[in-house]
Amino acid sequence: MGDPSVTQKAEPDSTRADFGANEWLVDELYEQFKQDRNAVDPAWWDFFEGYKPVDPSPVAPPGGDPC
């Protein structure tokens, strides 16, 4: 079996890019987890406890034209 000291929690410095082409799936699972953790496989629970998705859309400075 696996090492019980290994954790699946998200690392604080991890980014969405770590998931590559599957990042949309992780985002979908995370949204389900936020609504009802029982809606996702319990194997994801520890990971999502520390997961902080990054907003992919750039934010314009308030009151200014970004161009």
DSSP summary: helix tally:
2
What's the assembly state of these chains?
single chain
Write the element-wise H/E pattern from the N-terminal end onward. HH
User: What percent of residues are in strands?
Assistant: under 5%
Question: TL;DR of this structure?
Answer:
The protein is mainly α and 67 residues long. It is built from 2 helices and no strands.
Question: Could you characterize the architecture of this molecule?
Answer:
By secondary structure, the protein is mostly helical. The protein contains two helices and no strands. The protein has helices at 23-35, 45-49.
Descriptive labels:
67 residues
Which helices and strands appear, and what pairs or packs with what?
Elements: H1 23-35, H2 45-49
